[in-house]
Design brief:
TIM Barrel; 2 domains; 8-stranded parallel barrel; globular
């Protein structure tokens, strides 16, 4: 039986709504996945994240591998028990962290800034795996497809990702092709390891690479499907701008419609409001990104304003005396609790941790409601109208097609 049960499709796009079954519960799709990088969504308890209506979070294999280690988490009963989260967990493979040690974030890499400044460093990317210097203690460490799979098994992940090489944006076609081929060989090793080491019940996702080259993306999509993976993730540097990113995603989801229409699709590391809307239209089921929590920690709230890239920086002087809430009708503790932009400005300027906490709750409420609107619109046959309204700045809290993300639907 397929892991993803598709319950509705949009006639004008590839968008679909469904239910993804995992060992720790069902995930209503399309869905956003908050990052619990080190075993916690920054600034929130697991209970607070669940109360917002999220069905799944993402744990970071690479960081948990280095600290506290997969062995300890396994002894604790897996990452669910370790962090007090009873719902589903997806874990990335560590491939992107290898990329970021050498190139920084994708934005850094596109803008020509090298290195991430964390103290970690790639020593060698070889056929066997990757040797690197740990940012924790400076020791030399090694990670391979087999080690990545073993650590994710220790974490008891519900969805595990294949170990891949996240190809940098600026490299040439020849390097991209060779890197993508290595990702496919690593994929085969991940598949073999899982066959030889049955463990906790989990879904396995292959990762599509291929850079910004259509034929490489198409070939990588086909290789990912042929691996037998239960799901497919689209990864790597997706382009220099949004138009190119959407084109790259389109190449993969077009092939997936042709080759494996029923398998779930995940888009790695993308979470801007307009990107979520377009990604859903292109046929993506789940997304993960640090954006909502990172913005909150830096004094910025998500709002329905495309002119400002859907952002409101409450730490700016313009909001020092603004007694309006962040968003009308928002049910988050800040807005529903009557707290003003001026108060949140004050907290941000004084460095009070409460400010970041409240903004994180708001931003994740905004994203959860946005995804609930898109899901309901697909089910009701109204996606074009709802997506257009959201793009033009209508609030997800008042767009009219939403189901409450905190309630099952």
């Amino acid at each position: 039986m397929p892991a993803l049960r598709i319950i509705a499709r949009d006639r004008s796009s590839r968008a679909r709504a469904g239910v993804l079954a995992t060992a720790h519960g069902e995930i209503r799709t399309p869905a956003f996945v908050p990052l619990a990088t080190a075993g916690a969504v920054r600034g929130l308890t697991a209970g607070e994240v669940a109360a917002l209506g999220y069905d799944i979070v993402l744990g970071n294999t690479f960081h948990l591998f280095l600290r506290p280690g997969g062995e300890l988490i396994d002894r604790a009963g897996g990452l669910h028990r370790f962090m007090g989260w009873e719902r589903a967990i997806i874990t990335d493979s560590g491939g992107f962290q290898v990329f970021s040690m050498g190139h920084g974030t994708v934005a850094d890499e596109i803008k020509g800034r090298r290195g991430n400044g964390s103290g970690g460093a790639i020593l060698a990317i070889e056929e066997d795996g990757v040797r690197f210097r740990s940012y924790v203690d400076g020791s030399e460490r090694f990670i391979s497809p087999e080690i990545s799979m073993a650590v994710q098994a220790q974490l008891h992940s519900d969805i595990v990702l294949a170990f891949d090489e996240c190809t940098p944006f600026h490299v040439d076609r020849d390097y991209t092709a060779r890197s993508t081929e290595r990702t496919h060989r690593w994929l085969a090793r991940c598949v073999r390891w899982r066959a030889e080491n049955p463990g906790p019940d989990s879904l396995f996702y292959a990762i599509v690479q291929g850079g910004v080259y259509e034929d490489l993306r198409v070939a990588s999509t086909a290789a990912s499907v042929a691996s037998g993976a239960e799901g497919i993730a689209v990864g790597g540097s997706l382009g220099a701008d949004k138009a190119q990113m959407y084109e790259v995603i389109d190449w993969s989801t077009r092939e997936l419609e042709r080759l494996a229409a029923e398998r779930p699709r995940h888009l790695l590391g993308i979470g801007e409001v307009d990107d979520l809307i377009r990604g859903v239209e292109l046929g993506i089921d789940t997304f993960d990104c640090a954006m909502p929590t990172r913005l909150a920690r830096h004094g910025t709230a998500l709002v329905a304003d495309p002119a400002s890239r859907f952002r409101l920086a409450v730490d700016r002087p313009a909001f020092a005396a603004d007694l309006a809430p962040l968003a009308a009708d928002c049910p988050c503790p800040a807005c529903a609790g009557g707290l003003s932009r001026a108060y949140l400005h004050h907290l941000a300027r004084t460095g009070e941790q409460t400010g970041g906490h409240l903004l994180t709750l708001h931003n994740l409420t905004f994203i959860a409601t946005l995804m609930s609107c898109l899901r309901a619109a697909i089910i009701d046959g109204r996606l074009p109208a709802v997506a257009g309204a959201l793009r033009e700045g209508e609030s997800p809290f008042g767009v009219g097609a939403c189901a409450d993300p905190r309630e099952g639907s």
